[in-house]
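step=predict obj=ABC transporter permease n=309
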Amino acid sequence: MRGLLRQIWNTKGLARWILLVGAIVTVVFVLFALFAPWIAPFDFNQTRDAAGVKFEKLASPGSGHLLGTNDQFYDICSRVVWGARTALEVVLLSVVLSVVIGVPLGLVSGFLGGWVDRVLVFVMDAIYTVPYLLLAIIFAFMLNDRIGSGIVAAALSLVAIYIPQYFRVVRNTTVSAREATYVEAARAIGARPTTIMRKYLFGNVVQSVPVIGTLNAADAVGTLAALGFLGLGIQPNEASEWGYDLSRALDDAQAGVWWPALWPGLAIVLLITGLTLVGEGLNETLNPALRRRRLLPVRFTPREKVDAT
C-alpha cells in the first residue's frame, strides 16, 4: 500500500491530474452513500413531510424541495443522494465477487494447463462473446423469479459479465509467469503447486486487477442504470435507483418538466466519469510503459578547497 501511494505521489503530468479529479468526484459520491441519512432531507421512498402533508407532484425546485419532486411525489434530492448508496453497494458487491471468482480461476487455469485450462477458457470465451447488456438482462430475468429484484440480485446480474475479464487477464499473465526462473526454482526445491500459486505467482499476476476493477465499477454503474431504465433493476420501494427514476422522467421531459430527468442523469454521468478517470489514472500510474516520474533535482555536496601551501 505504501509503495502504491509512493508511485501515485511520484507520478507527474496529466496522469496525476486525471487521477486526482476522478478521486475527488468519486469521494463525493462515497460521502453521499455513507452519510445519506444525514445529507438527504427525506427518506428515498418518503412522500409526506413530518406533519403528514403529502408532497406536491412535480413540484419545481425551490426551498421546500431543493431539486423538486417527481411524478411519484418523491423528493428528487433525496432520491439522488440515496441512489449513490444503492449504486456503490451494487458496484462494490459485483466487483468483489467477480474478483473473488475470476482471479483464482484464471490463476489455476493458467498454471495447471491441460484439460482444465481448455474447459475454463471455452466457458469464459462463450460468456465473453455474449453482449454484456444482453447477458445482464438474461440474468436479471432469471434472478427476479428466485431472489427478487433487490441489491443482491442486481449485483449478481453484473457478476457474470465481469468474471471472464479477470479470468482472461490473470490467466494470460500466469501462462507467461509460470515459466519464469523463480517458479522453476520453487519447483526444484519441492514446493507444491498451491504454494507456488499462492506465494510466488499471485502477487505478480494481480497487478492489473485494481485498474480493471475501477473501470468495471464505472461500467457497472451504467449497466445498473440500463437495467433500471428497462424496469429490470431495483424497484423504487426497495431502494433508490437512478436508472428507474430516469425512465419515469421521460414523459415529463417531453412535456417540458426537465428536473426529474436532469439530476439522476447527471449523477450517472458524473459517477461514471469519476470512476473512469480513476481507472485511467491508475493505469498510467502503475503501468511502467506509460507512467512518468517526477525528476528530483540532484544536488552535489560542494568540494572543499584544498590549500596548496
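step=describe
The radius of gyration is 25 Å.
step=end
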